[in-house]
Amino acid sequence: MAEEHFDVLTKSGEKTGVSKPRHVSEIHRDGDYHRAVHVWIFVESTQELLLQLRSDDKDSWPGQWDISSAGHISAGDPSLLSAQRELEEELGIKLPTDAFEKIFVFLQECVTNNGKFINNEFNDVYLVTVLHPIPLDAFTLQKEEVSAVKYIPYEEYRNLLAKEDPAYVPYEANGDYGKLFEIIRQRCQVNVEARSLSLQKQLQRYSPVTLEANLAELSEADQKALGLIVKAAKVIDDIFYEQVWYSNPALRDWLKEHANASELDKLKWDYFLINKSPWSSLDENEPFLTTADSAVKLLPEATKLIAGWKGIEYRAAFPLTKPPGANFYPPDMDKMEFNLWLSSLTEEQKHAATGFFSIIKRRSEANLDASQSNHLANIAKKLTDSNSDLYSAPYSEIYRPFLTKASELLHKAGDLATSQSLKKLLHSKAEAFLSNDYYDSDIAWMDLDSKLDITIGPYETYEDEIFGYKASFEAFIGIRDDKATADLKLFGDNLKLLEDNLPLDSVYKSKDVSAAPIRVIQLIYNSGDVKGPQTVAYNLPNDEKIVEDRGTSMVMLKNVQEAKFEHILKPIAEVIISKEQRGFVDFDSFFTHTICHECCHGIGPHTITLPDGQTSTVRKELQELHSAMEEAKADIVGLWALKFLITKGLLPKSMVESMYVSFLAGCFRSIRFGLTEAHGKGQALQFNWLYEKGAFVFHEDSTFSVDFTKVEDAVESLSHEILTIQGRGDKKAATLLLNNYCTITGPLKTSLEKLESVKVPVDISPTFPLADALMN
């Protein structure tokens, strides 16, 4: 066998590109930084940890009690795979990936064996939670590594470490490694009353609203089609739950099943439905649940069989920190690994790997993970023709069971639809689900001219916080408001005029800008990527090829905007806006700026030319920063566009004051979404820029007003800054801008605390009785 090698890391834990043999004369002699995994098995019912007794032949800490299982990560291997492998090799336990919860990374720096063994090790610490002790006879011990195993109460073990008992491998129980014990303690000592109160407060930030529309103008056939479309949208929800995190569907089903067990369980379920995950959207994705709340799964054959024992019952795990790559990438993949793999691909393969409609997986997952379905295992076999562990798989294969069902429903709905354009959209989208080619279906969506308005498919990339490449599935179903739609034709027709006059050097301006159709609908159902704060409008598609060929289309959700204005923006204005300017806040200005926001997604740089002459896109160059920068652009350029249209006599001059003051009030609405969310981050950038320029003024009574003599120049200067960064594809400048301005400054913090103290809701939580009735 070839000698095992380790990746050599920098002191900050990044790969150097060098690997060395494991032999003591190399990696540990030189004190090179490297990686390892620690796997702890915790027994929920007895509150014990499993320890192993290290073999007397080990080169470090021989004959001492240690972690349940641990081992080095070989060069090129992923962390999670190493954790699974070590547990199986040392203890004979074969567990799927969803049993492992990565809780922190611990840097161990120590010298033993009279200075001959220098251990500089980054340890990925995993926790496996089982309900009951695994019988000792069920373990198959790797004798050269492990002499015995035992259970010990976690607090007793912590005390032994604190006393530096020589029978145990030393760890700083009161230092960095104490996180392990603190996490376990928090889960074991739950204050039900305090936790219920906390969840109630989180839920109260959402104002419940009912969203409906008049279906009287729909024919009987269209109403039947609508019922089928709602069912397809329910399937879209199932896909999105899986896109967020691989154990998310199991958590959802478990919480639903136990929702009526207690008041606390009901609160967990209610807040999970809003966030569609265990991470709170309004709290910068802080977890409101832990793995201790998660689904219990049974593995009868994870160890050797023991008479009378049914097998391992474990908690399906999820990390405390929301994975930046969601379930689009392996959880232990980093950018360096991805980019190294990407550089080995053909141009066609690169396009697929960085495209909207694929996910990145590991071949090794299929080989080791017992939880993989036969469907996913077959995909791995079919698509892994490379020497790399990573491979790209299309949505049409990964989500085939879901998409087949959704496709059948849309085809049936298309057969019933009376509108020819709706019929074309439904059939083409049904075909796209199975072919993974969405171009024609998105063109059909742009051409939609129907009373029944449907948006369904993978679109927004907010969940992919690593690169911003991967699209999440979503659905919006509504009834078109014909009068409001006719009133807005002005905005779509003037996109070329706006593009030509953008505060941006001509070299970065788009030459071909198409008029953007705008549709206004009354929303009757949404699903998929609609977690947390609700969307008031959207501009699609995001595919740069379609934007270049045809532009974009906009959909305004009027009843959602009306609900937000009444329940959120008006109460904010009463608290935050100075008494003299409060009367300027009105729905028309709020609604009109939202229109301009969506219009401005369709103008400005999209496909760009880099300094070396290569063609790229803003999305690919700015990567994970693209969403926040694009939302900030649409917002601030939308405000610039309103003033420009007023100056041209296309909108009334009476709007000037109201649009600026309504925008100011709206800043607080979006910033309250949190600075990890693209809209909140983009809004913080705008607010702090305008405040710094004196356009927003903070008063002694903790209210704000607009300085009308400064706001126009401030808006134009920020518009120019963001548009130029996008035109250059300058990620370094985008990082600097966001770092400097995406903060909660003193006056902003004061105002946000004031809104919190008077319990102004942050957003709405809609229910859809019409859709529910159609499902019955």
From TrEMBL:
<dbReference type="InterPro" id="IPR000086">
    <property type="entry name" value="NUDIX_hydrolase_dom"/>
</dbReference>
<feature type="region of interest" description="Disordered">
    <location>
        <begin position="1"/>
        <end position="23"/>
    </location>
</feature>
<protein>
    <recommendedName>
        <fullName>Nudix hydrolase domain-containing protein</fullName>
    </recommendedName>
</protein>
<dbReference type="Pfam" id="PF03571">
    <property type="entry name" value="Peptidase_M49"/>
</dbReference>
<keyword id="KW-0378">Hydrolase</keyword>
<keyword id="KW-0479">Metal-binding</keyword>
<feature type="compositionally biased region" description="Basic and acidic residues">
    <location>
        <begin position="1"/>
        <end position="14"/>
    </location>
</feature>
<dbReference type="InterPro" id="IPR015797">
    <property type="entry name" value="NUDIX_hydrolase-like_dom_sf"/>
</dbReference>
<dbReference type="Pfam" id="PF00293">
    <property type="entry name" value="NUDIX"/>
</dbReference>
<dbReference type="InterPro" id="IPR039461">
    <property type="entry name" value="Peptidase_M49"/>
</dbReference>
<feature type="domain" description="Nudix hydrolase">
    <location>
        <begin position="32"/>
        <end position="174"/>
    </location>
</feature>
